[in-house]
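Summary for the funding panel

The consortium committed to producing paired sequence-structure records for every protein in the target list. Below we show the first two records in order, beginning with the earlier of the two.
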Amino acid sequence: MQTDQRIVIVDTTFRDGQQSPLLFDTEKYRFSLEEKKQLLAGLIELGVTHFEFFSPVVGEAEAEDVRELIAYAKELTPKPLHFLGHCRTNLLDVEKALEVGCNGLNLYLGVSPLAQRHNAQKSLDEAVALAEGVLREVRAAYPQMYLRFSAEDAFRTPLADLFQLYDVVYPYVNTLGLPDTVGIAEPEDVAQVVSALRERYPRAALEGHFHNDRGLALANVLAAVRAGVRYIDASIWGLAERSGIPSVTGVLFNLSKRYPEIKEEYNLSQCYPLNVLMASILGTLVPYTEPVSLTNRTHTAGVHQKAVLNEKKVYEAHNLHDFGVDKNQLLLGPLSGWNLIYYYLKEVEAFEITKEQAKRIAQEFKSRTGEIGRRKKPEELLREIALAHGLSRHPIPEEVPTARLENLD
């Protein structure tokens, strides 16, 4: 098998993403076919080429959606795409995935001690025999098909057991998966296991799937790629079981720092629009933990706001413009200083104001921020105070706001 040296995002929004508790929190429960098409189009526009889907055995509705999405994707682009069926290690799952149009398979089987006792209910030897038999049959029937095999819960599986399983499937697969199914690994663990697998299975590519139970998923991705993993599972917003997995846009943003070829292989300007699309579907804001977000360009502290007004780079170290975030926000609130108040009243509200007046108004504004809430916004309170101080507005021609400078000096 040939090992692909490119870094490839395997999007699993339509599989692990649909298992996210956030779909229940937002009372969405399940994406509609039309919503899935919108998300798929956004991912393709971004440059994603690998998509993981549920095995159709999940249900007839999901099977029909997968069939429709694969057909729709082929209408959107002539670029070769990989439609990967996420299958248990059995031939029924494989057959159903191929029936709906999947052209690749992501097979998995748990062999950790816990899985042997409580899930798969097979001994290690039985699991190894099953995997070898299924993979041999699938590869014989489909010599050119892309096959990945993963030992579920790999980081709670003794390395010797992992070797025993992967030794028998290695001849049949393109890629060996390394799933941190319960988010237990640390970056050092990832680097060690990846190095061991690369040394033992040099002809296979490696794929990382890292859950965020400890908040380390993205750090583990970076460690995995540095150690030689080339396929990374991600989803829009990092939606997945429990606390999720790394987000597509967060992975691309971080990998582009070290691997500039990412900028050539992906249309990074579509990152933020993709996140906003998901927000519109779920009816909530882009998560504040998402790197590619307007929140990551929002400033509330007075010291920060003053600096950003004069030079954004003081508190904005990363170029998010290339990722589709084309503006920032300075929010009026209890922590705002007179610099922002002066700027806002002069440049946005068009009041005639001096810096000394701004300092006096800022003191009163801060003393009255307890009035701010759902019924009165900060801008309303500040406008009220400005008028009470006798400030007057001057008319601004329509063309002026579009040419406004962000530096007051």
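The next record, for a separate protein in the list, is shown here:
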Amino acid sequence: MSLPRTLTPDFFSKLTDSIHSGGESFFQELHECNGAVKVLCIQQSCIAESKYLVEVLDGSVPVKYKHTCLALIPATVDGDKQLVGKIISFNQYKVTPTKSRYLIILTKIAILPGDFRHLTTHLGPGLVYYPGLSVKQQEHAVPQAAPVQRTNQPLASGQTNDNLSGPIRNSDDHGPQRKPQSAPYTDAPKPVNTTGKPVVKTADGGTGGPINIADLTIYTPKWMIRARVVTKSQIRKFNNQWGEGQLFSIDLCDSSGDIRGTFFGEAVTKWYHFIEEGQVYSITGGQLKPANKKFNSLSHACEISLDENAQILLDRNDDSIPAIRCSFTPINQIENMAVGTIIDVVGVVARCNEVKSLQHKATGTNLEKRELLLCDTTGANIWITLWGKKVQQLQNNELEGHPVIAFKGVKVGEWQGKRLDTQASTKVTFNPVLPEAGAIKQWWATTGSQMKIDTGKQSAEPNIEDIMSIKQLTQAANQAFQFRTLGDNGIVLTTRAMVEVIKENTFSWPACMDCQRKMIKETGHWVCTRCRSTNKPRHTYILSLKIADDTGSLWATASGYVGEEIMHKVSAEDALALSDNNDVNAAGKNFVNIFEEARLSEYIFKVRVFSETYMDERRLKYRISKAIRMGRCVDAAVKCRLKEIGQLL
């Protein structure tokens, strides 16, 4: 696989030569490039406003090496700061030594057009850091912050700590050294906890003192934080190539921000029962690394990995450290979010379903679930499903009177529209004392409770500028399928098209009232294939339709409320009754009429593109997740343009 030809070859090697020949003065100067240098970003991590740590590769072949840079993104750069797969062009740079490598600070940069994410997927795992840009500690000493000590005894002369969480060692490793006689505390023993249990005492900060969570980066050398444990997950066991393992995580916050901490292996046994939600702890000795946003919804760019050697001390309570920090997403924006995104949400309980018990397919154990319909001041609503122990946290009497509930760390899902699901680490707060909760409570008391709630409503209008033709959509889908960038949940694309054909032979299926899965007949009775419910099914649409525009066509499926929208609000139960009885409805239309009416209607479609395997063959599939009639979209576009024109006048 070849690299883009615009990349600058041998940039790393030439920079290495300049560092060795420039001496100490090289690190004090801002260097101008003879011509624009172009590198490809393969990984990014935001550490502050307009500051990104990026891993890049130059144009050297064969492709073996990468390096870390600090990219200063100017405010004039368009887009959402998505740098992975982009070519970064810069004219100025500065080099500063860190603990292990020389950090290249890029200024006067530009993001060039083009998307090469398919290259990063294949190249990233096999690359190593360019060896010539590694810092040799004996040649260039990097000043480090003073470590946090648990005693008032000074360190012995000549000792240093080159590992953020490792033991103190001699800086000269060439052989044993004689201890200076003038150092009175050299032989003082290091405090050791021989019990093997966590130390329970009040921490007063040590010599270094705590720093704000918001100030932590992966390059912070030695640190100690004082933070409150907001949530603590259950212990999760797993198996990998190294055998069995276990982990649990905690969310920590102080007055400046929040961060995720994860414990592995023996640290789980040592710390799980010591750490309690709501308590304040002093923590040091963990490893800072870029946050994995697939599993971490917190705003911090880093997360902390902690082992049994970490120092965690129970601290005194501090009212300046908040009990919880949330970044709430308005409900009307959830429709446009990707499936699997972890968010915080707050809303008033407009409706509440009864507790239901399902059988876990893998373990055979019973699992409780409960669905709540949340509304907020945007007027939109969404169903959220509580699972397991989260169901027991909210009693029936607490859900009376439409309480306001805040959820921290829920997952966006999709089944007949967007939904939310609680996770093991989700924090549920009943009637929280927050400004957002107060505003929602006041809105519900004045106007919200009078609104007509449509649970099948699709609240968010599409962005007109994101609409593509059928030809462009299929090209984008085929490219993502070819380079295997669809992921587990696929991608969502938007198109404007007309319904050309709807298959009439199989347009619905019998769905379970409890879990919406297909029901089958066994010995004359309906049985759900998932939860084994024997209630009467409710037929729901599973349409197979062909949509087309002047550039092409494609076959897609549409189910549930989306299918009902395409069928002009005629329910699947009514359509099935017309088909079975050969009858007409109240409008005087028969089964054939309602399908004819649905054809040749124009919509804005949101199409989820994904792949599935059938008979050992991967196939590309299209599923319509949203359908909005063109009239509604034109009205929304006109209102938006009129508002923009009014702001210019």
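Regarding this second record: The first strand starts at residue 31 and ends at 48. The chain is about 15% helix and 35% strand.
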